[in-house]
Amino acid sequence: MPTPDLHAIELAETAAQAFRDVFGTEPEGLWAAPGRVNLIGEHTDYNEGFVMPFALPFYAAVAVAKSESWEFHSTYGEGSTVRADSVEGVEGWAAYIAGVAWAMNESGYPVAPVRIAINSDVPHGAGLSSSAALECATLIALADLYGHEIDRAEAARIAQKAENEYVGAPTGVLDQSASLLCTEGNVMFMDCRDFSREQVPFDLTAEGLVMLVIDTQAPHRHVDGEYGARRADCEEAARRLGVPFLRDAPRDAKLDDDRLNRRMHHILTENDRVLETVEILKRGNVSGIGDLLTASHVSLRDDYEVSSVELDSAVDAALGAGALGARMTGGGFGGSAIALVESAAAQKVEAAVLEAAADKGLPTPRVFVARAAAGAHRVS
């Protein structure tokens, strides 16, 4: 188990105090799970391809205890509490908690009612997996409370089941896998076919680099139709080719459909970019991945059509100010971008991104420096 992150501890202690204030009793434990940035490998997860996420030092923390009924409290805003007789039919933010309990029961890991208080600083709607962080924190908490030993890769699939079948968001398994399986100081290379994974050192400091995350403040939502439409395109292209997933498509495959061909081209080339990124990072050459990041963005923008004016503005401004590489990250249609930048140029790049957004009348982005943090863990 990873050493508890100090920031996760602070968030969890706030959740614990909220638990006491709302429920009048002590929680039985505190758990936390992080959001994530996907370095490269976008929309490849549901095509059984390759991904490379790392965990962010932003967490969803939960304070939990067994109870006679389901009671969920969130510290967001002025705080709100949801009570339910069962985990069926819960809506809103509490659906991500109830959905995990439902999915665990469906998967043979029975759980009973709990009280749970949540506190999170994973930016909501920024494409940094705020929902997966909440799901994974809840899952490891319920597993501990009810004595279930669940392999982390299987746990990711259970959390994905909650989001897909309960919440109704057709996401792949990348987000939950990153939250549960990433380790501090590393980016995780994962094959989404067999869930084999390798922690690859990601030492930005040694090369005088930083990774900027640019939250464009243009929210994205996975339950919107466009994400599902891209997944459906991939499934239709694979069906026409007679292969299980687009990962298996022949390199020279062509369909009589320009849109499906472009979707397929992105998946095949993005998988190649992930594999090349792994090899470059293993050689200790983080700066060498810049062109691959930028190529990924171009493919997502042009072939997969999931970028946005806000994301394109951030990426173009960062590159124009000297970033070594930049791309949108996450599902797209808003959310966040990343930029690989020499430390000395970080302020210049940030200023350029902010100026470009202002010039276009876009929301003011939030820019911060990312580091590879610890994955989901029990805090106390």
From TrEMBL:
GO terms for cellular component: cytosol. It comes from the Bacteria. Residues 280-355 form the GHMP kinase C-terminal domain. Residues 96-181 form the GHMP kinase N-terminal domain. Residues 17-66 form the Galactokinase N-terminal domain. It is an enzyme of class 2 (transferase). GO terms for biological process: galactose metabolic process. GO terms for molecular function: ATP binding; galactokinase activity; metal ion binding. Its EC number is 2.7.1.6. Keywords: ATP-binding, Carbohydrate metabolism, Cytoplasm, Galactose metabolism, Kinase, Magnesium, Metal-binding, Nucleotide-binding, Transferase. SUPFAM superfamilies: GHMP Kinase, C-terminal domain, Ribosomal protein S5 domain 2-like. Belongs to the GHMP kinase family. GalK subfamily. This is Galactokinase. It comes from Glycomyces luteolus. The lineage of its organism: Bacteria, Bacillati, Actinomycetota, Actinomycetes, Glycomycetales.
